[in-house]
Amino acid sequence: MKSHMKIKNLDINGHTFLAPLAGVTNLPFRLLVKDCGCAVVCSEMISAKGIFYNSEKTLDLMASKNEERPLSIQLFGADPDTMAKGAAFVEKLGGADILDINFGCSVKKIIKQGAGVALMKEPELARVLLKSVRAATRLPLTIKIRSGWDHTGSQALNIARIAQESGVDAIIMHPRTAAQGFKGTADWNLIKKLKQQITIPVIGNGDINCVEDAIQMLSHTGCDAIMIGRAAMKNPFILSQIEDYLKTGSYTTPSYHDIFNAMEKLTCMYIDHFGELPACRMLRSRLSWFVKGLPGCSGFRKNLSRINSKTQALEMIRKFENSISQTHQGIIPPDHKADN
Ligand SMILES: Cc1cc2nc3c(=O)[nH]c(=O)nc-3n(C[C@H](O)[C@H](O)[C@H](O)COP(=O)(O)O)c2cc1C
């Protein structure tokens, strides 16, 4: 088992981080994942410019609760001064325990602004930006990078070195290139290389789909912790499974009842947070991730596209649970993870 981890002065009680996922890692989802045993949850990426212009939408994305802490808030942007102001705002607002800067987003709209992975091509701008942010906040500071713009990873190693020199406290690496998007595979060898070249903690990310993948990433790369994105969208229990395995050497598979309870809980939290109709619209896709691979999920998913109220959503979840437990006695078949 890995030793205890610290980011600056912050003790991390575990080895799992929930990845920032735009449109997904909102407050209700983070609370659910926290409840599933995740050590550190991350917000979706937040525009520093949006903070500067006092955008209501941006400020809403920063809603947080004490129960989810430690919380990492991720900012994106390319202007050092605006980013520094955003960092100071996040610290003053309270609620965040870590500030993360996005050096990895490869969406065109973000790259066009010079933000996200575009910053990996501009080491001197990155240095100025990180120094400005460092001077503006005492929060533990992390950056989330990709491999860079080619497969060698030399840009990543360079940016990481600059980050360390600029007072950044940990590096998160998703080792795919800018052009890869989410295609191909994450090059875990690059995480290993990074870990060997810097002294601040490294959090490895990319393609962890089950407990065994997580253990493999930790042992292959020597990274200090791991970050999980897409797998947590369909199975938030993966976080507790990994934490359990690291502590005890074993883990359990959630029962159907655990899964349906989580769906109910998420539904109620979404409705409390976003209001009934907007929440129902979002839940149409969110709930469908949880049932991926379950017997009879296609009928459930079809019905989900029509939910408009809390009563309707909760009834539908219960009905699906009943139909499954009558035929499968509450035990998850081993092929639950199968994509269908
Ligand atoms: C829907 C979606 C939204 C994402 N949003 C962000 C984001 O806001 N900030 C960020 O740094 N990465 C974002 N990512 C990348 C993830 O944080 C993560 O690096 C990537 O999915 C690889 O990890 P995984 O294989 O565990 O999913 C996003 C990925 C997805 C699929």
Overview features:
globular; binds flavin mononucleotide; 340 residues; two-stranded antiparallel ribbon; alpha/beta; 10 strands; TIM Barrel
Helix content: 40-55%
Gyration radius, in Å = 20 Å
CATH architecture of the largest domain: Alpha-Beta Barrel
Unreliable runs, pLDDT <50, ≥5 residues? 334-340
Q: Please give the count of helices.
A: 15
Question: How would you concisely characterize the structure shown here?
Answer:
By secondary structure, the protein is an alpha/beta fold. It has helices spanning 27-35, 48-52, 56-60, 80-93, 108-112, 123-136, 154-165, 188-197, 211-221, 230-234, 238-248, 256-274, 276-290, 297-304, 310-328; strands at residues 5-7, 10-12, 16-18, 41-47, 71-76, 98-103, 141-145, 170-173, 202-205, 225-228.
How would you describe the overall organization of this protein?
The chain has helices at 27-35, 48-52, 56-60, 80-93, 108-112, 123-136, 154-165, 188-197, 211-221, 230-234, 238-248, 256-274, 276-290, 297-304, 310-328; strands spanning 5-7, 10-12, 16-18, 41-47, 71-76, 98-103, 141-145, 170-173, 202-205, 225-228. 46% of the residues are buried. The chain is built from 15 helices and ten strands. The protein folds into two domains: 5-248, Aldolase class I (TIM Barrel, Alpha-Beta Barrel), CATH 3.20.20; 256-337, no CATH class. Strands 3-10-9-8-7-6-5-4 form an eight-stranded parallel sheet. It has a two-stranded antiparallel ribbon with strand order 1-2. By secondary structure, it is an alpha/beta fold. Residues 334-340 have low confidence and may be disordered. Residues 19-22, 24, 44-45, 74, 102, 104-105, 144, 174, 205-208, 228-231 line the site of flavin mononucleotide (FMN). Flavin mononucleotide is lined by residues 19-22, 24, 44-45, 74, 102, 104-105, 144, 174, 205-208, 228-231.
